[in-house]
Design brief:
The chain is an alpha+beta fold and 208 residues long. Helix content is 28%, strand content 32%.
Amino acid sequence: MYIPKFNAVTDQALLHDLMRQFSFATLVTTHDGVPYATHLPFLVYPDAGPQGTLVAHLARANGQWRDFAEEREALVIFQGAHAYISPSWYAERVSVPTWNYAVVHAYGVPRVIEDETRVLAVLQALVDQHEGGFEEPWPMDLPEEYLHRQIKAIVAFELPITRLEGKFKLSQNRSAEDQRRVVEALSSSADASALAVGAMMRERLPAE
């Protein structure tokens, strides 16, 4: 990923936070030299390994998992908040539009999880993560035979992270005044993603 120095983020805790918040990510591998992508919800375990470990599952009918046996590096793309930036917001009027965003690229070699007990634990952890905020979380109390059939229809895998790249493009190349003007514009938006970008920028505004 192209990352200008002023957009680079190397703080693992910050990157893991974004990955957990935007955990529906894109798994990219290659098959016969051709890129192949699947969109999946991931579990992020920051303390499992030097840079953390990702865990997910895909449909067994999706042949992407068969390429894991070749032990080639895969890429998982986490897309955070993003927003259009109008040049009309800048003090410097001779400017062009751009897009502000936060992304993390995680690399590693995926490994299939064979043990059915571990696969069940993966599914339970995923359900717990996304049901936890509900008033009445779904308990995953499924009949054993039905659950066994569902497990056989998926392939769970883990991806120990060997490399993390973080890019937060938040107008760092603009003047402090322009950055404040962008934050003000984004903060008045009705769009949730624009508001999130504005909040990220506000935390990083240069001191006045």
